[in-house]
Amino acid sequence: MSVTLRFCGAARTVTGSCHLFETEQGRLLVDCGMFQGPKTLKELNYGKFPFRPDAIDAVLLTHAHIDHSGLIPKLTRGGFRGAIWATRGTIDLCSYLLPDAGSIQESEVVSLNRRNAARGRPLVTPIYTQRDAVAALDAFRPLDYETWVQVMPGVRARYWNAGHLLGSASIEVEFAGAGTDGKPLRVLASGDLGPDAKLLEPVAEGPTGLDYVICESTYGDEDRPPVTRESRRERLAAEVRAAHAAGGALLIPAFAVERTQELIVDLVDLMERGDIPAGPIFLDSPLAIRATEVFRQHTESLESDVNIDRLLASPHLRCTESVEESKSIAKLTGFHIIIAASGMCDAGRIRHHLKRWLWHAKATVLLVGYQAQGTLGRFLAEGAKAVRIQGEQIKVAARIRRLDEYSGHADGPELARWIASRRPILRGVFLVHGEEPALAGLSERIAERTVPAAKVFTPLLDDIYELTTEAPTPIDVTHRRRLEPAAVVNLDWHNEMSKLILDINDAVEAAADDRARGVVIRRLRRALEAKE
Ligand SMILES: [Zn+2]
Fold first, then answer.
1. Is it the case that residue 55 has pLDDT exceeding 90?
2. Which of 36, 43, 95, 213 has minimal CB crowding within 10 Å?
3. Closest by CA position to 338, among listed 246, 260, 232
4. How many CA atoms are closer than 13 Å to the CA of 302, on its beta-carbon side?
5. pLDDT exceeds cutoff 80 at 373
6. Are the C-beta atoms of 242 and 364 separated by less than 8 Å?
7. Residue 194 C-alpha to ligand 1 middle, in angstroms?
């Protein structure tokens, strides 16, 4: 009997979760996520899957976020006919998130093809359309937490609350007869794990006694000060008061699902108590508006001591669904709050608001979530003096602030504790879904203390391991890789390039006069022509 595991996503420095399990009886995916971040990675979304979609028997989905679910419509479009297992919360969220992702693909391709046509390049088709996404929803099958489901001959699965998002799960998979002495081989995939003190979710749960654990490591190198509901609200209140004092708009690029609802609940509550100045809160995202409805339908499954339903219906909150309503916000000048997607500023209405406000010293941008490499949010977080939005260079004068307390992810110590609570872990721990420092940070935290260092692995994209051996055995994949290992490590050359261009512009502009500008340009030219 053989069970192999291929990391088709969520590997070293690579986002987009997708684990392929293969046995003699069939093939199973845990997640089918979209690659996000640098261009090199995003281009993989247009390429072929490293497997035949019609050869996959089932998909087990950890949660609704696009970097875990986003390529499901592409899979269905490619001929996948099996079941997609997920919790009800995940299914409800996917029924909005996936069609929305489809329409984003369609509109991105329209603008990409306009550029391609102008440059005489071949036209591309969308990864999938809104229609494909709606069609994919038929394959979803609901299941309950902590209940076994037979997902393929000889394979059963059980979902555990991961405390990361409405419906989110870690997934335990058992391969009958493939473990020690004819026992099942037991594998646990963490999905994304939530922090201990999250407003709407419980602490992550999970089974013990496994052969393998696959664990995310997004914030593996961070050790946040302990967060309580009160300390988080105080930090938010302080940011809002400072933004009000600055006198302009407060822009919050937010993830449509959960982060947005948590922020609204706290903002409205703070306003009602008079702890922060009152002002309109615009929820400027049709997707976030619908996600908010999903939350109101699931309030009984959420952990909270506040009346979410009442707070989400507050008159302080104004939902701007249509484009006209959204545009009318741009006429406002004084203090107001705008929550708009996307959370990393790489798409969505937030870009229009950033274009309108970034160059204003009285505006504030509050980043409340993880900013992947290569995204506009990451540039802002790293203190870029100018950025490009829709082809236009914009100076950054606004106050750029960060608030990590609303993170949906566990930090390093919480991840390490979650892994430790799963022991005994007999054969290996795979750390995935993190940039190099995060992987190194988490690996250091658990090596020897939790599991022997020799049992900790950080697989590269498309690595394959045989799992039934005493320790995971790597299989030669030299000819099967979509990205060379070196390309993975140097993923951010696009970022370096855009930074360089901005710095050159800066240097030329900052020069004293035209003569000095000429000198700068000639020096750069000489550097460019110099042989190494
Ligand atoms: Zn997630």
1. yes
2. 43
3. 260
4. 23
5. no
6. yes
7. 9
What does the angle CA 417 – CA 418 – CA 420 come to, to the nearest 5 degrees?
60
**For residue range 124-182, what is the model confidence (pLDDT) as tens digits?**
899 999 999 999 999 999 999 999 999 999 999 999 999 999 999 999 999 999 999 99
Cα-based angle 15, 17, 21 (whole degrees, multiple of 5): 140
C-alpha count within 13 angstroms, C-beta hemisphere, residue 490: 7
Q: Which tokens sit at 118?
A: 């102008």
The whole-angstrom separation of Cα 9 and Cα 361 is: 40
Q: 111 or 70: whose pLDDT is higher? A: 70
How many angstroms separate the CA atoms of 444 and 222, rounded? 12
Query: Separation of 64 CA from ligand 1 center, angstroms?
Result: 7
Residues 368, 216: Cα–Cα separation, whole Å:
20
* pLDDT tens track for 187-208: 999 999 998 877 667 778 899 9
* DSSP of 52-119: -GGG--EEE---S-HHHHTTHHHHHHTT--SEEEEEHHHHHHHHHHHHHHHHHHHHHHHHHHHHHHHT
Cα 407 to ligand 1 centre (Å)? 10
Cα of 193 vs centre of ligand 1, distance in Å, is 8
DSSP string covering 266-317, please?
HHHHHHHTTSS----EEE--HHHHHHHHHHHHTGGGS--SS-HHHHHT-TTE
What does the longest C-alpha to C-alpha distance in the chain come to? 80
The residue whose two tokens read 């550097």 is 527
Q: How far is the CA of 317 from the centre of ligand 1 (A)?
A: 26
From the CA of 164, how far away is ligand 1's center (Å)? 7
